[in-house]
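Good morning,

Attaching, inline, the backbone tokens for the sequence recovery test we're adding to the shared suite. The designed sequence is right after.
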């Protein structure tokens, strides 16, 4: 019995001894539960210390819910303490301007048992490093020449900052395309009118900031202007290298050529005085001429001489496309001629109306066109030879026009022409050998059909009724038609011409033939 008691006593004491040796599991403590970084920059750093309290084993994983907060490790085991370092990345999408917060989630495992997640808040304030401009738009208004302005660029933020600059228009240039910005700098923006088209224009300057070499959000500076490219004053001999606009008072002192692909625009109301030279000056249109005035702003193109001759200048040579209206063309050998020299090819019929031709040898000379063409509201007055010479055309209509010259009116140097003249007026001729309409050579030029309708004053024609040349005068008007001609002839006093007696008509005609030969020779040798 005594032995049993002693044995039970040892067992009791053993269990009591074992119970006294049990050890509590370790605990985890953090150096901070909230960390304030202050300003978030590319060099911001901080750390978090994990401390184990008590005996045992603590392992952990740690993760951030934001990519801008980078951790030195994602897991570890603590012996006594463990430090987790972290830094910031500013080139990520989840870092925004202003206050930013990231949550660190620490998942500990204590003595093999997964424990609840512990959270740490990391916060800071982020301000984007970028470029501030003194203007986000440039309005130059109306300009007539090259112009430059300066854009002030100011660095905002603390990071290393460089920039790239580009323009979307060739006429819009900058003085630097790249650079480094430490404080402030200026960007010179220039509008170069050398290649600039006239009228309203827009363009964009794009500035891309680069923070620590990484491109940031670009800034676009909108540029707008109205380019008045009107040329006025003295114009010397030249060939256009870009589209031009003429206006105001102009002294034309030499031949001007408009090449194919370029356009010369002459503004309403322009007054052009052409210099008289031995060989005569030409306005040569191989490209396009837009010479449209209006009823209140007649375009004038005449000799500079106070007492001009009928050939002080050669005229407008229309090899390309022409639009001429509300214009007064005077003192030229041929107001408009259609030599079609081969340097260009018209793409459409000429558009000619409301024009007064005066004191010229011929108003419209050697008209050629493969397009059906209509001339209307023309006035021919005090001409020395013909009003219109048709050389190579298929269908031509003339309407509402006044043929007021006492010389010949319409001369046909074509075959197979269909010509209609309607609602127009003619005047008596100085001598009987001046005709209203005639075929120059009724053997060479055949099958021409001419129809005159409701026109006044037709008195003499020639070259018809053989070889297919037919002339018909339908319902001739018994009195002069109203509302015909250019509409502004009374604004200009009738010109006083150089005297060429009718008996000298043959000489004048031979001069014209010789002149034609010379001009064709020049063209062939250009």
């Amino acid at each position: 019995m005594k032995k049993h008691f002693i044995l039970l006593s040892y067992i009791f004491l053993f269990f009591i001894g074992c119970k006294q040796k049990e050890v509590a599991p370790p605990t985890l403590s953090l150096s901070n539960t909230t960390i304030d970084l202050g300003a978030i920059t590319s060099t911001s750093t901080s750390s978090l210390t994990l401390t184990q309290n008590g005996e045992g084993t603590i392992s952990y994983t740690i993760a951030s819910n934001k990519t801008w907060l980078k951790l030195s490790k994602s897991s570890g085991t603590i012996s006594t303490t463990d430090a987790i370092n972290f830094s910031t990345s500013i080139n990520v999408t989840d870092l925004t301007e202003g206050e930013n917060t990231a949550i660190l989630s620490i998942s500990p495992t204590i003595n093999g048992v997964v424990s609840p997640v512990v959270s740490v808040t990391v916060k800071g304030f982020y301000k984007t490093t970028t470029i501030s401009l003194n203007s986000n738009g440039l309005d130059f208004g109306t300009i007539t020449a090259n112009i430059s302005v300066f854009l002030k660029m100011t660095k905002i933020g603390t990071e290393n900052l460089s920039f790239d600059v580009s323009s979307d228009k060739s006429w819009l240039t900058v003085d630097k395309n790249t650079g480094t910005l430490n404080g402030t700098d200026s960007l010179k923006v220039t509008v170069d009118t050398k290649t600039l088209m006239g009228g309203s224009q827009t363009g964009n300057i794009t500035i891309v900031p680069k923070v620590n070499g990484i491109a940031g959000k670009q800034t676009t500076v909108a540029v707008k202007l109205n380019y008045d490219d009107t040329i006025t004053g003295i114009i010397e001999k030249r060939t256009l290298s870009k589209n031009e606009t003429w206006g105001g008072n102009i002294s034309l002192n030499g031949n001007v050529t408009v090449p194919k692909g370029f356009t010369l625009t002459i503004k309403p109301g322009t007054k052009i005085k052409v210099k008289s030279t031995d060989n005569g000056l030409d306005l040569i249109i191989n490209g396009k001429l837009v010479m449209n005035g209006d009823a209140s702003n007649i375009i004038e193109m005449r000799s500079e001489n106070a007492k001009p001759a009928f050939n002080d200048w050669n005229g407008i040579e229309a090899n390309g496309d022409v639009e001429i209206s509300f214009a007064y063309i005077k003192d030229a050998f041929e107001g408009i001629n259609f030599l079609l020299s081969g340097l260009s090819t018209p793409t459409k019929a000429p558009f000619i109306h409301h024009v007064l031709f005066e004191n010229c040898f011929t108003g419209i000379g050697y008209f050629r066109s493969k397009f059906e063409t209509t001339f209307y509201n023309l006035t021919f007055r005090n001409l020395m030879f013909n009003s219109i010479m048709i050389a190579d055309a298929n269908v031509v209509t003339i309407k509402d026009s006044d043929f007021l010259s006492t010389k010949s009116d319409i001369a046909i140097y074509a075959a197979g022409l269909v010509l209609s003249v309607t609602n127009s007026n003619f005047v008596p001729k100085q001598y009987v050998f001046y005709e209203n309409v005639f075929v120059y050579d009724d053997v060479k030029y055949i099958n021409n059909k001419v129809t005159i309708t409701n026109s006044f004053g037709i008195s003499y024609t020639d070259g018809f009724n053989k070889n297919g040349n037919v002339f018909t005068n339908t319902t001739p008007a018994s009195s002069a038609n109203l509302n015909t001609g250019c509409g502004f002839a009374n604004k200009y006093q009738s010109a006083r011409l150089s005297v060429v007696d009718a008996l000298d008509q043959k000489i004048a005609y031979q001069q014209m033939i010789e002149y034609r030969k010379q001009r064709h020779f020049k063209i062939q040798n250009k």
